[in-house]
């Protein structure tokens, strides 16, 4: 079915890198040479050595181990936030298309309003009063991002809702739940899946930005954005420790992008461009 | 200009003002969503009942939310943004200089980014599907995946630490000579430029390519015009409206970039001010700065709309 030699080289690189990041995240406690908060050196920012492959960080903790645990926290939050934004956005978007009327109008205007403020600014406003913990973080990221998914799923569902098979399902008396989950959802999957990759990248970048600003994951835990913040003071002394987690974020985003691109191309050619 | 244009423009502006009012409600509501008491959240569990009561009085929490909203809105409309809880300073006075700093930084980033993006977009279209186009598009795709602080710190690492051409921290003060000020903002402006350049260039390329596929461009090519004069004389005038739109949308994107870039370079602007006071949970400052950012964002979008109407006669006669 899927011939590995037919995967384009860019997508293959993306797949391998993404898989590496995921493996590092899942098996973090077994792979990491040291503990997440374990201080292994008296001097901060030790250079790279055979003992500490990436050197040590601002408190003398092993940077490689922090990176591996950081992958876990980054991916965990980004995946949950994406899952939330997708389920919320898709279900509300499909419902708006199926029910129409005031439900559709009200929800669409609310989404327009939310999207008329930059996401980061709205997140900062809300985070100024909310307690800083993981649940709040995931909720804020998921809800704010679901506006984008809502727009896409509503647009796709409006097209599908007028198809004959949906009409047939309505005439034989199926409920709204059936229409949304059994008729519209399967047919809207392929455009949604390619959007999934982009939303995930956005979630990773957004989380990193929040943590970098000190409003995301709180110490002693750190995602990659938080690690940039911890090590940024070293840059002025020519110590590049902060660049490593920053580069990891970029690498993750690029590899997921490559995979998403490839999936998008595959699905569009299968569906004759309808995507 | 005929009156239908004026009418359309007036409509857009009125819509924008309405949207801005709705946004002010949203921002105010955003700081009220906590199920408990804001005063409790700010002071923590160990707060004494007296200090809680004081803070509630100071924040006006004894009144219902809608009264507080109108009180706040009335203040904003008359230029009174309230006082910061953490320092007790008047917010409007602290913001004035910072707003100017931020606009100064964003202005220079835009001055560099806009022509550069349009020229690169044109080059990519001229040599489309060649290696130049692929290189530009590839770099653009990669740089949309870079977080702002990656670009910022790479610039600092090389140009401030290794070569020491520019300062790593952008200190600016009142009455600073123009030359020094420009040197101080060189790196943050470069970082901001790179943040928006890729998006702007890709969208410019797409907008011009779209026009290039029309019949009159084919005619011009068949007349034997050179590729650049086809682009300059026939494609570009028709691409102006979409390109202006692209530019404005990306300037709006600068707003988000500016928050992070100011924190990286410790630049005394609005973004730094906002982030500082979110950390301090200083709600009045966050509301005021959030509203200003939203207002700038919405105004840029309205200007984009109006520019598109003026540049494209077809939009003046909606079907």
TrEMBL record, chain A:
Question: ABC transmembrane type-1 domain location, by residue?
Answer: 71-260
Bilayer-crossing regions: 6-31, 73-100, 120-144, 196-215, 235-264
Question: Where would you find this protein in the cell?
Answer: Cell membrane
Keywords from UniProt, A to Z, are: Cell membrane, Membrane, Transmembrane, Transmembrane helix, Transport
Keyword DNA-binding part of the UniProt annotation: no
What's a Pfam family this protein contains? BPD_transp_1
Read off the Gene3D superfamilies from this record.
MetI-like
Q: Which CDD domains match?
A: TM_PBP2
According to Swiss-Prot or TrEMBL, what is its membrane topology?
Multi-pass membrane protein
* Listed InterPro entries: BP-dependent_transpt_permease, MetI-like, MetI-like_sf, OppC_N
Specify where it is mainly localized. Answer: membrane
Alphabetized PANTHER family for the sequence: OLIGOPEPTIDE TRANSPORT SYSTEM PERMEASE PROTEIN APPC (PTHR43386), PEPTIDE ABC TRANSPORTER PERMEASE PROTEIN (PTHR43386:SF25)
- Family that this chain belongs to: Belongs to the binding-protein-dependent transport system permease family.
The entry's protein name is ABC transporter permease
UniProt source species: Mesorhizobium montanum
From TrEMBL, chain B:
Organism, by scientific name, is: Mesorhizobium montanum
Cleavable signal peptide: none
The protein, known as: ABC transporter permease
Question: Which residue ranges run through the membrane?
Answer: 12-34, 103-127, 139-161, 181-200, 239-265, 285-311
Q: Which UniProt keywords apply?
A: Cell membrane, Membrane, Transmembrane, Transmembrane helix, Transport
Location of the ABC transmembrane type-1 domain = 99-304
Would I find Membrane among this entry's keywords? yes
The cellular location(s) given in this protein's UniProt record come to: Cell membrane
């Amino acid at each position: 079915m899927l011939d590995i030699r037919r995967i384009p080289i860019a997508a293959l690189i993306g797949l391998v890198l993404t898989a590496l990041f995921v493996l590092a995240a899942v098996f973090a406690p077994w792979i990491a040479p040291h503990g997440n908060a374990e201080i292994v050196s008296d001097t901060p920012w030790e250079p790279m050595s055979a003992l500490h492959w990436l050197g040590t960080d601002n408190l003398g903790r092993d940077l490689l181990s922090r990176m591996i645990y950081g992958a876990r926290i980054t991916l965990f939050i980004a995946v949950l936030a994406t899952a939330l934004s997708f389920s919320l956005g898709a279900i509300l978007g499909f419902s708006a298309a199926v029910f129409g009327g005031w439900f559709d109008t009200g929800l669409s205007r609310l989404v327009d309003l939310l999207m008329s403020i930059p996401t980061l600014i709205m997140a900062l406003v809300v985070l100024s009063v909310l307690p800083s913990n993981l649940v709040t973080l995931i909720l804020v990221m998921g809800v704010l991002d679901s506006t984008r998914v809502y727009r896409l799923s509503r647009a796709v569902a409006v097209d599908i809702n007028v198809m004959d098979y949906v009409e047939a399902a309505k005439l034989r008396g199926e409920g709204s739940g059936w229409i949304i989950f059994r008729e519209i959802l399967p047919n809207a999957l392929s455009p949604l899946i390619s959007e999934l990759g982009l939303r995930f990248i956005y979630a990773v970048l957004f989380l990193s930005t929040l943590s970098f600003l000190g409003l995301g994951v709180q110490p002693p835990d750190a995602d990659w954005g938080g690690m940039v913040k911890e090590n940024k003071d070293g840059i002025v002394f020519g110590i590049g420790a902060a660049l490593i987690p920053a580069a990891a974020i970029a690498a993750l985003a690029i590899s997921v992008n490559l995979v998403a691109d490839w999936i998008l191309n595959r699905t569009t050619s299968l569906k004759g461009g309808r995507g | 200009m005929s009156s239908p244009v004026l009418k359309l423009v007036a409509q857009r502006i009125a819509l924008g003002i309405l949207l801005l009012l709705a946004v002010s409600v949203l921002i105010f509501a955003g700081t009220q969503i906590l199920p408990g008491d804001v005063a409790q959240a700010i002071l923590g569990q160990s707060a004494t009942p007296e200090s809680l009561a004081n803070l509630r009085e100071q924040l006006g929490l004894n009144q219902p939310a809608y009264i507080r909203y109108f009180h706040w809105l009335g203040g904003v409309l008359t230029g009174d943004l309230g006082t910061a809880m953490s320092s007790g300073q008047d917010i409007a006075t602290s913001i004035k200089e910072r707003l100017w700093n931020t606009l100064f930084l964003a202005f220079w980033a835009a001055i560099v980014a806009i022509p550069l993006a349009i020229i690169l977009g044109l080059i990519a279209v001229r040599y489309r599907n060649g290696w130049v186009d692929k290189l530009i598009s590839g770099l653009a795709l990669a740089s949309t995946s870079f977080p702002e602080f990656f670009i910022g710190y790479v610039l600092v690492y090389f140009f401030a630490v290794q070569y020491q051409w520019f300062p790593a921290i952008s200190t600016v003060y009142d009455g600073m000579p123009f030359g020094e000020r420009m040197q101080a903002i060189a790196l943050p402006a470069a970082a901001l430029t790179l943040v928006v350049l890729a998006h702007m260039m890709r969208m410019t390329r797409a907008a011009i390519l779209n026009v290039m596929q029309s019949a009159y461009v084919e005619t011009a090519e068949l007349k034997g015009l050179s590729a650049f004069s086809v682009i300059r004389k026939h494609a570009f005038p028709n691409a102006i409206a979409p390109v202006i739109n692209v530019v404005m949308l990306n300037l709006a994107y600068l707003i988000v970039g500016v928050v992070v870039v100011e924190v990286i370079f410790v630049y005394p602007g609005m973004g730094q001010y906002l982030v500082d006071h979110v950390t301090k949970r200083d709600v009045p400052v966050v509301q005021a700065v959030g509203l200003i950012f939203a207002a700038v964002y919405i105004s840029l979008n309205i200007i984009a709309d109006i520019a598109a109407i003026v540049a494209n006669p077809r939009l003046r006669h909606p079907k």
